[in-house]
Write a structure and sequence with these properties.
Elements lengths: L9 H15 L7 E7 H7 L1 H6 L11 E5 L9 H5 L10 E10 L14 H10 L4 E10 L4 E7 L9 E3 L4 H8 L5
Antiparallel strand pairs: 1-2, 1-3, 3-4, 4-5, 5-6
Amino acid sequence: MSNTPMAASPLTRAVLEIDEYVSGLGWEQPARLFALVDTARLRAQEPALAAQLGLEDESASTGLTPIEQDEIPSGKPLDEFLGTIAWPDAVAGCALSVERLMLPPSAEAQVPENLSEAKLAQWVADHPERQEVRMTVAVLRDGGRESALRLREKDSPTEVLTGPDLVPGLAAALAATFED
């Protein structure tokens, strides 16, 4: 991947690779789910798939390979959908890329009380300080976590914020997909 620092951890590189891929599709995209597989294991156990993904080269055999999953069903809340997922042992981790509207902390005091979920969503969408953000969150079976945040108003690979604890709720929901 062109914009990923080589010194970054394999999980950070995978998150940034997914962020770059989804960014290339533009904004207003549906949520996208990815399995993360060990690239060396993929090359050894599924050489045809590795070749299809352009991973035949030995230098591409380290790290994690994101594999996009089937489309997430529309109309089903994301947390309910995530509760239905179980991963095979070959999957080392998973990642989700999702767009949301966010408000600055200063707007919390302005939120009207007793709004339904739909009315709250509309209130946020109409708020003058709202910002569109794309969150890509990844977790590993072993507990590793990483996130990438991209604001629509600063839509540039050099303006992507990364860190393990940027979206803790979503990371916890993804980690739960690996629990027995």
